[in-house]
Amino acid sequence: MSVHDANRLREQIATLGKSLFDRGLTMGSSGNISVRLDDGGWLMTPTNACLGRLDPARISRLDRDGRLLDGDAPTKESFLHRAMYDERPQSGAIVHLHSTHSVAVSCLPDIDPCDCIPPLTAYYVMRVGRLPLVPYHIPGDPALGDAVRGLAGKHSVVLLANHGPVVAGKNLEAAVYATEELEETAKLYLLLRGHNPRGLTPEQVAELEARFPRD
Ligand SMILES: [Zn+2]
């Protein structure tokens, strides 16, 4: 990958990070973004960085073994990203947020841990699909990485209980779109609780999955 391409990706991380922050999808210094590079390494947002005010030049660049090559030290949640990438060679970018409605769903006592949100809309099925819940772990616990690794082969999106979603996409734009789709569908799901909503039927979901296969 040329320096020019890496710099373009740094700019894209900062632009999309600010967009997510400005719309209230992430708060304070929470949330992190990474992009896989052609050499097997990654760009990753730094620890304690606010996604609304990223300096592209200070974004962490890691080699394929996770060693810091330049920029600030990476997010302490980098192990979540590694766990997803290890199982998903087809994924080029990951977004992890503590987005309010998705976190709210992750705290509900009665959700199906194999499928946290029902298929309410076609775009949710196309961009997120079946969403598993990863049991709660204290921040930084390496067992959380192992739990994510166990699901990431089959799922491009997982929801960490009482924490937030980890979303992989073929590129950064796709990962951001899927994150937004999840957050809006979580909001819809919460709005509809108690209303006995009519979701898509298994046949409608199967038709979407056949026509629009996810990565
Ligand atoms: Zn987190």
TrEMBL record:
Tell me the enzyme class: lyase
Q: What is its EC number?
A: 4.1.1.104
Which co-factors does it depend on? Answer: Zn(2+)
**Which SUPFAM superfamilies does the entry link to?**
AraD/HMP-PK domain-like (SSF53639)
UniProt record similarity statement: Belongs to the aldolase class II family. AraD/FucA subfamily.
| Protein role | Catalyzes the decarboxylation of 3-oxo-tetronate 4-phosphate to dihydroxyacetone phosphate (DHAP) and CO(2).
Q: In its UniProt entry, what is this protein called? A: 3-oxo-tetronate 4-phosphate decarboxylase
